[in-house]
């Protein structure tokens, strides 16, 4: 540890000018660190607002390319697609997940035609498709692990064939990374990457997201039997280690801000690309405070994202992505 004493040592010297601050900055935040989550809905017409997430919308396929164009123009490397499946297509088995022409597959094909260089990340789980709101199939009130994994394998292959570049399993079933990797490889999809939701906690911060997908009211019970206990940290390292061993190319910690300690531990232990999800509840909390003048919007957005980078995140899934990219481009 370097030490020094005042007045010989004055730490403020390096803070005096902007050029010095830039030169000695320990952490950087750029557009390359941003991923934009997007909600895709059925039907045409104007995007519909998500009431619980100020400024966030559900967009139909007819407006999707126009909606995504600013992100592509700003150089955001990837977007993450989430389908707001119509209620009439949901059932206990989540069979719409296996439809090769479902919302997320249609969106992927459309966007690959319009923006071939833009990375597409596809959510793989059953909660957008089940009428009970769980991430797998229920058997006697319990989410059946192995049976759910078999469905996730086929869901992942469908998405990859439609143009999804990165499969992102968010279900937290045991063994799903190895099974999905094997399924992709068997179809010759050896270059399709897997970004595992490796440490996904049973959090209070998901409410607005579930509202956006229409799964909040339908959810029966909670997800504590498969998502992680917020009390645990060592368990997160075991989850990450298993997913890496099974073939994950990248890992994610979710939520973000309440779990910066987990991001740091994962980054230091495994030295693999580690991502954070600034989830809907975090976004809603910040955006609402900004709307009421309680936080400076521009500084608040960039400071929270810098916090993820400082903790060790290679990138952040954030609903602020386009706004943050605009600020960063502006300097």
From TrEMBL:
GO cellular component: cytosol
Enzyme class: lyase
UniProt-listed GO biological process terms: protoporphyrinogen IX biosynthetic process
Subunit structure: Homooctamer.
Pathway listed: Porphyrin-containing compound metabolism; protoporphyrin-IX biosynthesis; coproporphyrinogen-III from 5-aminolevulinate: step 1/4
EC identifiers of the protein: 4.2.1.24
Keywords: Heme biosynthesis, Lyase, Magnesium, Metal-binding, Porphyrin biosynthesis
Protein name: Delta-aminolevulinic acid dehydratase
SMART domains (alphabetical): ALAD
Keyword Metal-binding set for record: yes
Reaction(s) catalysed (UniProt annotation): 2 5-aminolevulinate = porphobilinogen + 2 H2O + H(+)
GO MF, one annotated term: zinc ion binding
Cross-referenced InterPro entries: ALAD, ALAD_AS, Aldolase_TIM
Family: Belongs to the ALAD family.
């Amino acid at each position: 540890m370097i030490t020094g004493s005042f007045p010989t040592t004055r730490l403020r010297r390096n803070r005096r000018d902007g050029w010095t601050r830039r030169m000695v900055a320990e952490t950087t935040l750029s557009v390359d660190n941003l991923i934009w989550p997007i909600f895709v809905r059925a039907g045409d017409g104007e995007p519909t607002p998500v009431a619980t997430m100020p400024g966030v919308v559900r967009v139909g396929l007819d407006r999707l390319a126009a909606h995504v164009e600013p992100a592509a123009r700003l150089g955001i490397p990837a977007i993450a697609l989430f389908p707001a499946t119509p209620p009439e297509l949901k059932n206990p088995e989540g069979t719409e997940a296996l439809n090769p022409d479902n919302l997320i597959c249609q969106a992927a094909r459309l966007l690959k035609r319009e923006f071939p260089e833009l990375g597409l990340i596809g959510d793989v789980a059953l909660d957008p498709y089940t009428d009970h709101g769980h991430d797998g199939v229920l058997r006697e009130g319990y989410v059946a692990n192995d049976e759910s994994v078999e469905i996730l394998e086929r869901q992942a292959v469908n998405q990859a064939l439609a143009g999804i570049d990165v499969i992102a399993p968010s279900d937290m079933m045991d063994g799903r990374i190895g099974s999905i990797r094997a399924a992709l490889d068997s179809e010759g999809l050896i270059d399709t990457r897997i970004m595992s939701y490796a440490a996904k906690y049973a959090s209070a911060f998901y409410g607005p997201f579930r509202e956006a997908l229409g799964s909040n009211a339908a959810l029966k019970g909670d997800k504590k039997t498969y998502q992680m206990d917020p009390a645990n940290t060592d368990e997160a390292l075991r989850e990450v280690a298993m997913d890496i061993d099974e073939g994950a190319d990248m890992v994610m910690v979710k939520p973000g801000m309440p779990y910066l300690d987990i991001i740091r531990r994962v980054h230091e232990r495994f030295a693999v690309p580690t991502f954070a999800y600034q989830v809907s509840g975090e976004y809603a909390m910040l955006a609402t405070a900004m709307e009421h003048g309680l936080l400076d919007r521009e500084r608040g957005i960039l400071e929270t994202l810098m916090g993820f980078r400082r903790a060790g995140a290679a990138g952040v899934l954030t609903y602020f992505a386009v706004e943050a990219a605009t600020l960063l481009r502006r300097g």
